[in-house]
Amino acid sequence: MIRSELVQKIAEENPHLYQRDVERIVSTIFDEIIQAMADGNRVELRGFGAFSVKKRDARIGRNPRTGESVKVEEKYVPFFKTGKLLRDRLNGG
Predict the structure, then answer these.
(1) Angstrom distance (rounded) from CA 34 to CA 59
(2) List of residues 6+ apart from 22 with CB closer than 8 A
(3) Which of 6, 29, 47, 48 is nearest to 14 (CA)?
(4) Is there a contact between 53 and 78 (Cβ–Cβ < 8 Å)?
(5) Cα(33)–Cα(49) distance, rounded to whole angstroms?
(6) In this structure, what are the phi and psi dihedrals at residue 3, rounded to the nearest 5 degrees?
């Protein structure tokens, strides 16, 4: 599912809301999640999962084409851990 499909689904299930308002709501939710993670905070949506940021230390990698050693800088990556309800649904529970 892509963002526009999510907006369409929410708009269909809530005919009292204008589509532009639904788009603004979805954008606000995503923007707040992104901002919280950028600030180093964890975002938990009960039953769905938790978004957090993990630090990957600098290391020496390898270019797969040439086999040459390459220095990889430290970086922060998003991490998602599923909630129990989501995990149970995915596994037929």
Answers:
(1) 26
(2) 7, 10, 11, 14
(3) 6
(4) yes
(5) 12
(6) -55, -45
User: Which residue shows structure tokens 């649904």?
Assistant: 89
- Identity of the residue numbered 45: L
What would you measure as the largest C-alpha separation in the chain, in angstroms?
Answer: 59
Tens of pLDDT, residues 45-83: 999 999 999 999 999 999 999 999 999 999 999 999 999
- Collapsing DSSP states into helix, strand and coil, what is residue 4? helix
pLDDT-derived band at 92, boundaries 50, 70, 90 = confident
